[in-house]
Automatic annotation (TrEMBL):
This is Endonuclease exonuclease phosphatase family. One of its GO terms (biological process) is phosphatidylinositol dephosphorylation. It comes from Fusarium pseudoanthophilum. InterPro entries: Endo/exonu/phosph_ase_sf (IPR036691), IPPc (IPR000300), Sph/SMPD2-like (IPR038772). PANTHER family: SPHINGOMYELINASE DDB_G0288017 (PTHR16320:SF1), SPHINGOMYELINASE FAMILY MEMBER (PTHR16320). GO terms for molecular function: endonuclease activity; exonuclease activity; phosphatase activity; sphingomyelin phosphodiesterase activity. It holds the Pfam family Exo_endo_phos2.
Length: 216
């Protein structure tokens, strides 16, 4: 799996360089919250206890914004120990929810959840309404459109096609709803840079830059 944070280089509509400066901490995290009977994660400890620990880490590391994926059946355990003042309500466990949640130090408006139009049953991708979420957040006086995604998993051709179609879908939504605005897309892309032209590269071609690549 690959979790990526991509920030739009071309989306600071109307702002000039130096007009506003600041910084914030952002984490994207697949918390592996599938029921233990489906996936026990092959790590020590029960999943409820481990989810408690995840919430504690999110609180103590003082991240300003955290996008989570696979936040399904142990959602309440994470929220019990996390201390962010703003949190998305869960959309439900497996098979009802999309597993996408956000906790933050900043409030937001307009939370929307969208299911992928295309999925491939391999890796259980069609068992939950996987897709992306959208919210508009004001960070230190600047409005930013935030997208959280969990792409189709697997390496079969059907997986690759579904993943590529999902990126096309989210890019179409961004073009329709976030034109000229600051945009951050973060999540589990389930992809690699070496898969040229399929998903991550489509985001780069659309004008996004990968913050991990820029920093590392």
């Amino acid at each position: 799996m690959s979790s990526r944070l991509l920030a739009a280089a071309l989306a600071l509509g109307g702002l000039t360089v130096g007009q506003t400066t600041g910084n914030f901490n952002f984490l994207t995290y697949n918390v592996a919250g599938l029921p233990a009977i489906i996936n026990n994660n092959d790590v020590p400890g029960d999943k409820g206890t481990n989810a408690n620990l995840i919430g504690t880490v999110l609180a103590t590391q003082e991240y300003d914004i955290v996008h989570m994926q696979e936040d399904f059946n142990y959602h309440a355990y994470i929220y019990a120990t996390d201390n962010h003042p703003y949190r998305t309500p869960t959309s439900g466990g497996v098979p009802f929810g999309d597993g996408l949640n956000t906790v933050a130090n900043y409030d937001w408006t307009g939370l929307v959840r969208k299911k992928w139009n295309k999925c491939y049953l391999n890796s259980g991708d069609c068992l939950t309404p996987k897709g992306f979420s959208f919210m508009r957040m004001k960070i230190q006086g600047i409005e930013v459109d935030l997208y959280n995604l969990h792409a189709d998993a697997g390496s079969d051709q059907g997986d690759v096609d579904a993943r590529s179609a999902g990126i096309d879908q989210i890019l179409a939504y961004i073009n329709a709803n976030s034109q000229g605005r600051a945009v951050i897309v973060a999540g589990d892309t389930n992809d690699r840079w070496t898969n040229a032209g399929r998903s991550i590269n489509k985001l780069i071609d659309a004008g996004f830059s990968d913050s991990w690549v820029q920093l590392i």
